[in-house]
Amino acid sequence: MSQPVHLRSVLKTSTLSAPLKDGTLKSDQVTLDFTEIHPIHKAFAPMVREAKFDLSELAIVTALQAIAFKRPVVLLPVVVASRYQRGCLVAYRPHGEVKPEHLRGKRVGVRSYTQTTGMWVRAHLVEDYGVATSAIRWVTHDPAHVEQYRDPPFVEHPAQGKSLLDLLHDGDVDAAIFGNDLPEDDDYVPVIADAAVRDTAWAHQHGFVPINHVVAVSSDICLRQPAAVRAAYALLAQAESRQSATPDAPRKTLSGFDALRAPLAWIIDACLEQALLPRRLSLDEVLGPAHALLEGSAA
């Protein structure tokens, strides 16, 4: 019997990835050799710029930009992380009340303009309040993971070295978008009222929870070891199928082409409004390479 192919892999530890990491789920054809990277977004630039890994978690915006700029990655139809995002937009209470509809012409901070949480918050501002992305000045620190992308002209890169929290506290921005680093101080308050209620209603209306992270593989490994990539996807899909789901809410993980088509179409539209993509991507561009590899035909 031939030895399994080893793939250099990066996935954030979660209920989905844990059985892949501890060996509960395994394959005779492939072994996923995991590198731990914290926070996980530090793996994204090495993956899309130099294909440092064979298989890696990627933010959905990064994945779509990588496809648009023809980086050597293939998006697999697996969502490993989704979450509700409206509560991530916060203001500093001592500076006065900030309402979403009053953000036109204001300054809003976000770690990177291409950050997926920022994309979702901006999409909600457009959908719920009619506030166009270009009507706000976006203040950022980090560049895009895909180095070919250039921020639009309504994005600023301040010279000072203040953190996002300091910018908000000092009044340099009127609001800010945080991810897992949401400030816990009671003086930092959500800008969108009833965020949780709105998030749940949105998910029921659209049939999916806002997608954060997907899985991509390098184009090179697809060419050299297609059977190993198919085996890796089978493990991922098996792990995803084991994720708990509640009857009153859509799943926060997804797998399979049919599950991803409608969410991806929605996300591509949002990215176009925000100038995150240089052109409209077709679903065939996004899913076709993986479909050809996994099922032997175009999507």
State the secondary-structure class: alpha/beta
Shape: globular
Gyration radius, in Å: 19 Å
CATH architecture of the largest domain: 3-Layer(aba) Sandwich
**Percent of residues in beta strands:** 15-25%
* Run of helices and strands: EHEHEHEEEHEEHEEHEHHEHH
> Could you say how many structural domains there are in total?
2
CATH superfamily of the largest domain: Periplasmic binding protein-like II
Helix content: 25-40%
Distance from first to last alpha carbon: 33 Å
Whole-number average pLDDT? 95
Q: Under CATH, the topology of the largest domain is which?
A: D-Maltodextrin-Binding Protein, domain 2
Q: Helical segment tally?
A: 10
CATH class of the largest domain: Alpha Beta
Strand order, main sheet: write it out: 2-1-3-11-4-12
Poorly predicted runs of 5 or more residues: none
Q: What would you call the quaternary organization?
A: single chain
**Biggest sheet record:** 6 strands, mixed
Number of strands: 12
Protein name: 4,5-dihydroxyphthalate decarboxylase
Organism: Dyella acidiphila
